[in-house]
Specification:
By secondary structure, this protein is mainly alpha-helical. The protein has one domain. 78% of the residues lie in helices and 1% in strands. The protein contains ten helices and two strands. Strands 1-2 form a two-stranded antiparallel sheet. Strand 1 and strand 2 form a beta hairpin. InterPro entries: TM_pro_TauE-like. Keywords: Cell membrane, Membrane, Transmembrane, Transmembrane helix. It comes from Billgrantia tianxiuensis.
Length: 267
């Protein structure tokens, strides 16, 4: 069991470094590895993906908070966009956790893997949307938030991989798009974590230390090390070939996604 605790610490550190180095959220790393660790701990098969997604979503909260505060200090947040995106994001993220609770572990794993493989291919090809239109009005932004939040909850991401391309496509300058995405990442993480807690509440077969579909020991071991090592990753970003590392990370993410599918189909 001690090795499992150390694995949670190492996972938190890895997520923090990758977030600081590449500006990438940890869901693509956390969910597959948490799934494998939960198998080692004897978590029932039908709860593997739900517990991994819920725990990963909760672990994003401290990192999202730190990222938001950093971008706010640099004046990189378009708060008028945040105001209109957030209602849709809160609703979409929260409702999607109810959909996730109804889906079987294998279905969730397949959806997660397909999404992560698509994101990896986008990173490998370095595809970026061209700014071809203006921002929609309040209703349009809320609708976009609904979709961003819903997908984010099903794959346990902070929404950056969806929000930044959307805002860039809508002629928001990249630094502002990244800062604004960081701001909406916090409501995504909060609504997602709350939804997974409520949907898993009282579910039989979960570990004793689980709060709904959030496994507290993993959360408490990952979160501080993630926050501690994120600045280290940020410093390394100025010394290492980030473009090459992104390609390596994309391949690794594809491998982890496929490993998750293998795990849930053979556990």
């Amino acid at each position: 069991m001690e090795l499992v605790w150390l694995a949670y610490v190492a996972l938190g550190g890895l997520v923090g470094i990758m977030a600081g180095l590449l500006g990438i959220g940890g869901g693509g790393i956390m969910v597959p590895i948490l799934t494998a660790l939960f198998v080692m701990q004897g978590v029932p098969h039908e709860h593997l993906a739900h517990l991994a997604l819920g725990t990963a979503m909760a672990a994003i909260i401290p990192a999202s908070t730190a990222s938001l505060l950093s971008h706010r200090r640099h004046g990189a947040v378009r708060w008028e966009i945040v105001r209109y995106l957030t209602p849709g994001i809160l609703l979409g993220t929260f409702l999607a956790t109810f959909i996730a609770a109804l889906l079987p572990t294998r279905g969730l794993a397949i959806f997660f893997a397909c999404f992560m493989i698509l994101m990896s291919l986008q990173m490998l090809a370095n595809l970026k949307p061209k700014p071809t239109r203006n921002l929609p009005g309040p209703v349009g932004l809320s609708g976009a938030g609904l979709g961003i939040g819903g997908i984010s909850a099903l794959v346990a991401i902070g929404g950056g991989s969806l929000t930044v391309p959307f805002l860039t496509w809508c002629n928001v300058k990249l630094p502002k798009a990244i800062g604004t995405s960081a701001a909406v990442g916090l409501p995504i993480a909060l609504a997602g974590a709350l939804g997974y807690v409520l949907n898993g509440w009282g579910t039989p077969g979960l570990p004793g230390a689980a709060l709904g579909f959030v496994y507290l020991p993993a959360l408490l071991l990952m979160a501080p090390f993630s926050m501690l090592l994120a600045p280290v990753g940020a410093k390394l970003a100025h010394r290492l070939p980030v473009a090459m590392l992104k390609r390596i990370f994309a391949v690794m993410m594809m491998g982890l996604a496929l490993q998750m599918v293998y795990t849930v189909f053979t556990a």
